[in-house]
## 1
Amino acid sequence: MIKVVENLKVLYRYRVLVQSLISRELKARYRGTVLGFLWSFINPLLLMIIYTIVFGFIIGPRDPAFGDNRVLYALFLFCGVLPWSWFSSSSIESANILMIQGNLIKKVLFPAEVLPVVVVTSNFIHFLFGLPILLAAKLLIILFVPQAPPFSPYLVLLPLVMFVQFVFSLGFGFLISSLTVHFRDIKDILSNLLTFWFFATPIIYPMTFPAVQNSNLFRFFLNLNPMTHIIQGYHDTLFAGRPPDWLHLGGTLLFALLLFWAGHTVFDRLRDSFPEEV
Amino acid sequence: MYAIDVDNVTRIYQKYSARHRFQTFKSALLKGDFLRALRPDELVTALDGVNLKIEKGQTFGIIGENGSGKSTLLKVVAGIAKPSSGRVRTQGKVSALIELGAGFHPEITGRENVTINGIMLGLSKKEIQQKFDEIVRFAELEEFIDAPVKTYSSGMYMRLGFSVAINVNPDILLIDEVLAVGDASFVPKCLDRIDDFRRRKKTILFVSHDLPTVAKICDKVAWMKGGKLMMVGEPKRVVDAYLQDVTVKQEEKFEERSKTIDLEQKFEEERRENRWGDRAVEIKKVRLLSLKGVEKHVFAPEEGMVIEMEVESPALVKDFVFGVGVFNSQGVACYGTNTSLEDYVPVSFRGRGKVACRIGRLGLINGTYYLDLAVHKKDGYPFDYHRNLYSFLVSSTDRDEGIARLPHDWSFSPKIRIRPPKTGGKARVNPSTPRHECRGLLRVNPEPRFSSPPLKAGLSVGERVKKAETPGNPKNAVKKNKKR
C-alpha cells in the first residue's frame, strides 16, 4: 500500500509531463483531419444515432423505464454508451500503450505508469466532450417529450460516478498494460472480452427489464459486474434523475480501489522487465 | 565526492522465448497465477560486478566491442535500467543522450515536440520557453519548427533531439554513440558543445567507437569487455590496450583466411584469373612476417614487414626476376619493385629456396592492402604470377590521409602559439622515433577486393605498377626505381 502511495507521489511530480502528454495525445489524434476536434463530438453522436435506429426502431424494446418512448430510449442508450466507450477504448489503448511508446521506456528515464494514466485521462477528456451533447439532447427531449424525466439536483453526483469509473479504468489499465507486455495474446482476448462485457452490462437494456428481473441468475451475474453499477450510476444521475444506489456504488468504489492496488502492484513488479520486453 | 559512483553493479537480462511465453500463458491461465509464470528461461549477464567512480568535472570515456555492456552501463547510470545487484549513485541532474528524439510524436509540430521532449528530460515549461529560441537556432530548424516532425529528414530529427537534450543543461551528461549519425557540419558543432560542457566542469560519460575522439576529449577511459571493466586509466593507454586486444582477434581472423589460401587446392576458379605462368619456377608458399620473424597480418604504419616466398624450380633456370607489388583496396599501386629493376643479376637457380623482401618501415596509412608476387623472366614472361592473393591490414589510431606515410616532423617559430598533442599523443612520424607497437583496427575499407585494370600475362610487377598509375592522379606518384 505504501508503495502505491509513493508511486502516486511520483505521478504527481510528473504531472506536467502527464498534462503535456495528454494534450499531445488530444492534438495528435485528429491532426490532419478536416473536422479536427469536432470529431470528439461527432463520434458519440453518430454512435447514438446508430444505436437508436438499431435498438430503438428495429428491435424496439418496451420498458416502463422510458415509457415505451423510442426517443427516450435513445437518450437512455446514450447515457450508457458514452461512459462505456471511455472504458473500452482506454482498456484497448492501455493494452498497446507500452509497446507503442516502447522507445520512451527504453531510451528515456521515464516513469512507465505515466502511460496508462495518459491513456485513461485522455479518453476521459473525450468522454467529457461528449457530455455537453448528451445534456443538450436531454434538454431537447425534455422540451418535446412530456414523460421525459427532468433535470434533477442529483446531477451534481455525476462526478462521483465518474471518479469510481476513473479509478476502475485506471486499475484495469495498469493490469492490462503490464501483462500485455509479456502475454501479447491479451490484446486479442481483450477485444473479445469487451464485446461480451458490453452486453453483460445494462447499457442497451435497463436492469428493470423483465427478462433480467425475472431471472435470479441474470441478476446475480449482472450485479457481480462492477461496470453494471457504474453504468447504473450514470443512468440514475443523468437519465432518471434520482440518487445512485449508494451501497452498490460504494461497493464498486471499494472494488475499484482494490483493482487499482492490484493492477499497480502487478505493474510495479513487472516494471523492470518493460525495457527488455516491449 | 564522486559525480557518478557505480558500486559493484551487476545487471542480468532475462530472455523469454516465444515458445516459453506461449506455454506459460496457457499454464498461467490454468493455474491462475500470472506472476509465477513470468520466470525467465535464460539469463544474460550484461554487467558483471562493475565498479566505477567518476569525479566531478571529468570527461569519462567508455570503449569496447559491441555487446560488451557499454550501453547497459549508461542506462544503469541514467536510471533507465535498474541494476540486478549493486548500487548507482549520481550527484546532480542527469541527462542521457541515448537515442536522440526518442519520444517525438510524428504527427505534431517540432515546436510542440520540443516542449514535450524538454519536459520529459526534466525541464519546466518556463525553462523551455526561455530556451526555446536557442534550441531551435542550434538545431538550425527555424523554418521548419512549425511543421509536423514526420516531415523532417532523419538529420533534422537528430539535430532537434540533440539540441533539446543538450539544452537541458544537466550536471551529468551521458552520451551514447549518438554523434555517429550527424552530418559533417553538425558533428563539430555537437563536439563544440560538449567541449563547452567540459570547460564548465560538468561531468560527461561518453560511450563511443570513435577512438580518436575518445582519446582526444576524455580525461579518463574505461575499457569494457563481456560486461566487465578490463581497464580504467589514461585515455591513450586504455585505447591502445583495447586496440591490442582487437588486433589479436583480427590476426586470428586473418590467419583463418590465409589458411584458405592454400595454393595447391583452393582458388581453383580464381586461379586462372589471379594466378598465371608456366610454373617453371613456382611460388610454393608465402608468409608475411614482422621484422622479428613472427607471422602476422595486421601491421602498424611505422612497423616493418618481411615478405617471404618459398620458391621451387625443378629445372635449372638462368633468367629469373622476383617481384613484389603493394596495392591498396582502391587498386592504387602503392609500391612495386623487382630484383631486375634494382639491378640484381640472376645467375642460376635449381631446387627449393627462400626469397625474402624486407621492408624496414611500411609507411602506409590505415587500410587493407593486397600483394602481387611474381617470378618471371627479364622480358616479363611469367613463371608464376600471383595477383592479389595475399592481403594485410595496416591499422592505428592515426588519422592521416593519402597513400604513403611520409616521414615528417613539425616545428613552429615562437610567434606561433600551438599546443602539442596531449601526453601520449601521436608520436610524429620521424625515422628516429621508436617503432609503434602493433595497433588494431580503426578503419577497414569496405571493399574486400578491388577490380584492377585487366592485365595481360607477361607484365612484370614493375610494369603492372606502372600500368596501374593513372596520369593526372597525383596520388599515384610511386617511385619505381628506388634502391635500398
## 2
Amino acid sequence: MAKTNEPPTRVVAGQKTLLARTMHDIRYDEVNDEFLVTNQFGQALLTFRGDADGEAQPIRVINGPKTQLQRPDRLDVDNVHNEIFVPDIDRILVYPRTGNGDVAPIRMIHGPDTGLDTATLAVDPINNVIVSSVGKQLLIFNRTDEGNVKPRAIIGGPKTEITRINQIHMYPPKGLIIAAQPGGAGIEPKAPVFIGIWRIHDKGDVAPRWKLGGPKSGLKKPRGVALNPKHKELIVADMRLNTVLTFYFPEIF
Amino acid sequence: MRNPMRSQITSPRTRVSQVLRKPSFAGLALMLAAGSLLLTGRVTERDLGAASGTALLRPTGAPQLISQSPLPTMDGQICEWMPASASTTLAASLWQEPAASRSAADAVQRVNADREPIRSINDTYPTYSAIAVDTTNNEVYLQDENLFGLKVFNRLDNTPATAAFTEPKRSIGGIQTKLEFNCGLYVDQKTGDVYSVNNDTVDTMVIFSRNAEGNVPPMRELSTPHGTFGIAVDEVNQELFLTVEHDNAVVVYRKMAQGEETPLRLLQGDQTQLADPHGIVVDTRNGLMFVANHGSTHLVRGEHEKPNWPLDRDRMVRGSGKLLPPSITVYPIKAQGDIAPVRVIQGPLTQLNWPSNMAIDEERGEIYVANDPDHSVLVFKTTDQGNAAPTRVIKGPKTGIKNPTGVFVDLKNNELWVSNMGNHSATVFPRTANGDVAPLRTIRSAPLGKQALMIGNPGAIDYDSKRDEILVPN
C-alpha cells in the first residue's frame, strides 16, 4: 500500500546483482518465490530469491554462447511447466526455469511464417498460449509451438488501436491478455495511450474488451502492467510520470 | 486498505457482496478436484456454479459464501460470475477456476474504463542525476531526472536543517525543453551554454542558453545514438564526447554540432573493453580519455547506418554477452575505431560499483568518480592502472552522500560537488576531502532525511503476492 513519497521497502542494486542500470522487465514467480530480470546489455537472464535485498547476487544466471540470446529486453516465466520465455527480435526462445550458466534453449519459435519481430511477450501456462507483439499486432502462439509456425491468431487492425505494445501480462483464470500501450516514441506520444485487455480467443480487428486510459486515469506513457488479484487491482508503470499507479478493476477478475 | 477477504462482484443487473471465510485443510481436496476440471477443459460456468453451491453445504475449508445481498446496479461494468470458492491469489485461482472458454464470456461488450487511480507511488521532489557549476556566474546546475528538468541555484546556497528545501533561482523544464531522463550535464564556462544529455527515451542532446528559463525549446539540438549517458568537452579542440550505454561506444562530435550532424569519430568494438559505459572525462593536458564502465557488454557485427554511427542493439552477436567487473578504461583522446585501452583501472581494491559520472582535475592529475550504490565518491590518479585503490574515498553518514551519480570539481573555488539521487540533494566538500566528513554546504530540494524513491523510467512492473509488494525495475 505504498503511496506518494514513500520510499521503497527494498532496493536491489549494485555490482554483485549483475543487473544493468537499464532494465525493461521483471516477473515474480509466486510458486517458487523468485523474481526474474533481464540484462539486455550483457545478454543475460537473472533469477533472484523473492526476498532479495541490497547487493544480492542472483541465484541463477543464464548467459553465454549456447543461449543464443541477442537482445533479451523482456521475459516471462511459466511456473507450471518450469520454463522461461524470451522474446528476442525474430524469435521466441524457451529455457528451463532452473537453467543456470551457458544453457541452450530447449525450444525456439523462429522462421518466416512466425511473423516475429518482437521485444515483448507473456505466457499463459493454463490456457497454453504465448502472446507476443509485433508492431500494431498481438500474435498468439500455442505454448508448445516450435520452429517455423504461424501464429494461431492475430489481433490487429484499426479497432484494436494498437500502435505498439510494451509489457504484457496474462490472467489465466479468465483467459485475459493485458497489454500496455505507451503511444508513440518521443516525449509527447500522439497515438492512443492505454491499457488494453483482450481475451485469448479474440482475433482480427477487435477492440479491447476493456480499455483503461483517458484523462481521469492520468496515464501518459504506460509501459508496464501487472495484476494484483488479491485486491482486484491493475498496476501500471508510467514512464513519463515516473510513477506507479494502482487502479481498482474488479470486473476483470 | 481494502479487506482482501471481502470481494464484490458486479454485473449490469446486480452486485453481490461476498463475505469469505478462511480456508481449512479439508478444502484442499475440493480445490484439487476443481483443478482437474480446469485442466480437462470440460467445465462450464453452470457446472462450476452447481459445484460451488454444493460446496456451501460442506466444511470445505475453502473461502465460502455465507451471505449475499443485492446492491444497486452499477453502470459500465461486466458480469463475470465467480465461484464462492475462488481464491484471492493467482496461483490458487489457477486450480479453482475454469480455463478460459469461448462461451458467453466472448460476447461481452467493449468497455472504455477511464477511472482515477486509487493510489499513486511517485516522488514529488527533484532527484539529481548530474551536476555542473558555472564558476563564472557562481551558479550550480542540477539535472533533475525525476521531474525532467534543470534547477539552477546560487553556488553559495546552503539549505538550513530546519528548512523544507531551497527554492531554485530558476528552472528549465516542460515538453518544449525535450528534457527526459536527462543524465549528463555540461556547462560552458565561457558562454554559460548548458548541454543536457538524455538517456534511453529521447535520442536528442539539447543545448540551452544561460538565461533559459521555464518551458522553452532548446537553442540547439543534436540527434544522438540511442542510450547516451555521459558527456565531456575538449575545449582545446572544440570536440564533444558522449558515451553510448546501449552500444558500448563513445561518439565524438564537433562541439557546436547540431541537427543530424554525424560524429567525427566512433570508438566501439571487441578490443575497446567498453562495457555499459557511463561517465566520461577528457584530459587535454595529457591527451587522454577516461570512461567508467558498469561491466555488461556484448559484441556487435554489421554495417554502420551512417559514418561513425555505433552498431546498435539489432547488430548484437547472439550469445556474446558478458558480465564483467566494473572498470575505468583509458584511451588516447583521439582514439577511434576498435582499439584497446592504454590502461584499465579494475579490480576489488578499486571499490568501483556502478561507477557513474566522473570529473577530472587536470592540474593535480585526479579523477573523481560518483560510485552510485556504494554511496561514495572515489578519487583516483589519472596515472592509475590495474587493481588500484583510490587515493581518497568520501563516504559515511556525515557526508550526506546517497546514491551519487554526478560529480563536479570546481577548481576556481577548490570545491568538490556531488549530486545525490538518493536524497534530493547536492553536497559540496573541500576538494581534498577524504573519509566520513560533513559537507561544507548542502542544497536540498526535499525535507531533511526524505529518501528518494528513485523510480526511473519504469518499463515494467510485477506484483509479489507473497509479500504484497510491487516490484519495479528502473
